[in-house]
């Protein structure tokens, strides 16, 4: 769970973040690496997969 929180840039506090906070952070990070949003990030597909897995871990989707 710590990996998922750090992957999405969420604080590793004692309480779990709300699903809304997880989704917001996921979308912000996704915009940073997604080619459709102008990003030319090397390894974007891998990073997107990591972000999706982190979101799945934290909100169970």
UniProtKB/TrEMBL annotation:
Protein name: Unannotated protein
């Amino acid at each position: 769970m710590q990996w998922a929180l750090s992957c999405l840039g969420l604080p590793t506090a004692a309480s779990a973040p709300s699903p809304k906070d997880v989704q917001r952070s996921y979308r912000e990070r996704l915009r940073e690496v997604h080619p459709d949003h102008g990003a030319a990030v090397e390894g974007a597909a891998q990073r997107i997969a990591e972000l999706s897995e982190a979101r799945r871990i934290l909100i169970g989707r």
